[in-house]
Design a protein that fits this description.
This protein is mainly alpha-helical. The protein has two domains: 1-46, no CATH class; 55-99. It has four helices and no strands. It has helices at residues 2-23, 31-54, 61-76, 81-98. Keywords: Membrane, Transmembrane, Transmembrane helix.
C-alpha cells in the first residue's frame, strides 16, 4: 500500500515537471514574450544574490557592494561566468583581509 502511495506521489510531482519540456518546443511565442522569458533567470539570480552581498561582513555592507560592482564590471566586459565569480570572491576576500 505504501509503495502505491509513493508511486502516486512521484507521478503527481513528475508529470507537471515533464509536460512543459515537451510542450515548450512546440509553442511559438512573440518576440517580447521571448525577451521577457529570457530575463527571468537574471532577475531571479539577482534576487537571490543581493541579500548575500549586503551581509558579507556584519556592519560593513560596502565590502559586499564593492564585490558586486566588480562582478558587474567583469560581466559587462564579457568575461566567462567563472572568472566573474572568482573576481568577486577575490575582491571580497582581499577587502575583508585588509579591513
Amino acid at each position: 500500500m505504501i509503495l502505491l502511495i509513493i508511486i502516486g506521489m512521484s507521478l503527481a510531482t513528475m508529470i507537471p515537471r515533464i509536460i512543459p519540456a515537451f510542450i515548450v518546443d512546440k509553442l511559438q511565442f512573440k518576440g517580447w514574450v521571448n525577451r521577457w522569458l529570457n530575463a527571468i533567470p537574471y532577475a531571479a539570480l539577482g534576487a537571490l544574490i543581493f541579500p548575500g552581498i549586503m551581509t558579507v561582513k556584519e556592519g560593513e555592507p560596502h565590502i559586499g557592494l564593492l564585490g558586486g560592482l566588480v562582478a558587474i564590471g567583469l560581466a559587462y566586459i564579457g568575461l566567462n561566468v567563472i572568472i566573474v565569480v572568482i573576481g568577486a570572491i577575490a575582491t571580497v576576500f582581499l577587502l575583508t583581509a585588509v579591513i
